[in-house]
Amino acid sequence: MFNPNPAVIALAVSAALFSAHNNAKEQKITDTLNDLETIVVSASRTEKLLKDVAGSISVITSDDIENQAVNDMSQLFKYDPSVQVTGDVGGAQNIVVRGMGSDRILMIKDGMRMNEGYGANGLNDIVGRGFIETDILKQVEVAKGAYSSLYGADALGGIVVFTTKDASDYLAEGETISGKLKAGYFDLSSQSSIAGTFALRNGDFEHLFNVSTRSGEEEQNYNETKSPFDIDSNSFFYKGKYNLNETDFISFTADIWQQESKGDSADGLLTYFRPLATFGYQIVDENAKSTKGVDSFQLRYQSATPTTWYDFLNVSIYHNETQQDDVEYSQLDINAPMFGVIEIRDMWKTGGYNQKTLGFISHASKEIYENHTLGFGLDIETTQSSRDVIEYREVAGDTTKDVTTQKFPKNDVLRTGIYINDEIKLIDNQLIVTAGMRFDKYEMDPNGALKSTGETFLKVDDQDTTFNLGALFHINDVLDIYSQYGQGFKVPAYDLAYVEHYNQPTSEYIYEVIPSEDLAPEKSDTYELGLRGRIENLAFTSAIFYNKFTDFLSTELMSHETVNNQDGSFSHIHDKFQYRNLKSVTIKGAEFGITYYANDYVSVFANAAYQDGKDNETDLYLSSINPLSGTLGVTFEVNNFSSDLVLNWAKRMTKVNEGQAQSPGYGSLDWLVNYQLTDEIKMNASINNVFDSEYARYSKINGHAVDTDISNIAEPGRHFAMSMSYQF
């Protein structure tokens, strides 16, 4: 069954609905409350009961991923209105938490920092994030709000923690071999998938292997007017574990993921030339190919054997490399004597992005005395990033252009952080108070690179101290209230501080982005108050939040020039932009979720999220917030069968600035079916947008002009997904 987050109780509902059928309604509710014993790691960097967390955490489990027939990161949070994933299958994707996204959300996999993105205005629309195979995921957690006091730089608006599976997730006590075979089809992107997982235990050694392959194409829009690129992806995952004793182990993980997309369109290369067809510039051929890949390796030591200095210790070193190469080609047949050009021109544009991170991360905890636990750790990470674009042209075999541009200089970043976290339980464990502090030092070195003016790019050297304070009070066995305050910060990334970009997308317009080296770190303050629990057959959760961001980075128009020809006629417009600390931004909102158990077989659930965000200086709305939205659904389950009807809805978005498009309200119904045919075989299916409704999400509309034709970004019509698995 799916998990209607953002409610904490929704996680409990998910587990309860997919447990064995109980004959008593009261027992089902008890099981739901017991599932609040679920372990999460995002709130404290160590295992902690979900019920003891003073904050909102959305959780997606491996069961949710399978039961919802999820096959791509873009679908992970489709029933959580507080979390959005921008971008479609095969495209650049980013996670937005409570209206804040891009690199202001820190993404972590098994403790390792995942890649940063790249694109215009920090939107990461060229290189996305979260290159990962969903079949290897055991759990995904989204901790909302500032978490820099635990995780350091970039945890400005929240963190997303991916936890991968272990061999023990497949092997029962005494088993030496187990595994799972899975096949699926997703007609939205015509994607077929096959995955095999094998778990082995030999003495003190455990091994997990997963091999996955997917073949399909890009998502279509409602009118199916796209010419989708073909997309193929492959993943190999291995995790080996050696148990030193009952409490300590050493593990090694290798995660290799690759994706290739190709098609017959080269828009990035031909944007300038398409309008010139009437002047004799004819496109004879065009195609594009993009390859993305991530190689990550981790060596970990974990001990739960108490010593003088710690009761629990987790230390790991890791290497993570992300590479994306985009190649576009076109041939032009040019017959433009008015410009003095008659030729057959072959053109290539190749963009390469590379980021390597080497890290040492550690966390330890020690019980000082009963009900008082101290957590502490040291993180050291270094990252090297580069982005090159090569433009090459040939005419009759002769090179006419060969230019390599660095969109930002190759740079090295060193992050060092030390933190402490103190948890105290009072009043017979009814009150849990958590306080934390972290000191971070950040250095970014452009390695002597020169600007186009001949000046040297400056080094960036900064430091910051962040705090957090949270409290949770168990009012009684079924009702909790909590509050938290957290701080976040983000040092300006390489693509903002060092970007130097010149582009002429049309013959009449040139824009330029000039470097900004005096940027201050962005900072945030998060306040949250929540209540969760149950009243007889009704389980609920609620939260209100207020996030203030200062020194917010945005582009500013530095100059606007109209350039004329020598005869005085119009030639082109030339704009110059620069990233500046311009804004103080506030995002506030509320989240609410309920589940009602009507009887032993039927439950009804609903959730909603409200966001409001503005620039405090200009009073303009932020385009990253979403309209009031949520889900409404009903679940039926009996024995090995369950079925869900889920209505995704959103109110009309009217909080837009003058001249920008609003998004109409909508409702779209999904139908999910899960059936355990035998102990080994399970079937999962879904029909999405059952009534074939035409609508567009605001996350795709935002920023568009009021008169823009948005039919090409409308959500897909009716489509289905299905998977079958065999576990042995």
Automatic annotation (TrEMBL):
GO MF term set: heme transmembrane transporter activity; siderophore uptake transmembrane transporter activity
Domain TonB-dependent receptor-like beta-barrel: residue ranges: 263-690
Protein topology in the membrane: Multi-pass membrane protein
Ranges where the TonB-dependent receptor plug domain occurs: 51-159
Family named by the database record: Belongs to the TonB-dependent receptor family. Hemoglobin/haptoglobin binding protein subfamily.
Residue ranges that the Swiss-Prot or TrEMBL entry lists as coiled coil: none
Residue numbers covered by motif TonB C-terminal box: 711-728
A Pfam family hit: Plug
CDD domains for the chain: ligand_gated_channel (cd01347)
Keyword terms, alphabetized: Cell outer membrane, Membrane, Receptor, Signal, TonB box, Transmembrane, Transmembrane beta strand, Transport
A single GO cellular-component term on record: cell outer membrane
GO biological process, one term: siderophore transmembrane transport
InterPro entries: Beta-barrel_TonB, Beta-barrel_TonB_sf, Plug_dom, Plug_dom_sf, TonB-dep_rcpt-like, TonB_box_CS, TonB_haem/Hb_rcpt, TonB_Hb/transfer/lactofer_rcpt
Subcellular localization(s) per the UniProt record: Cell outer membrane
Motif extent (TonB box): 38-44
Protein name per UniProt: Hemoglobin/transferrin/lactoferrin receptor protein
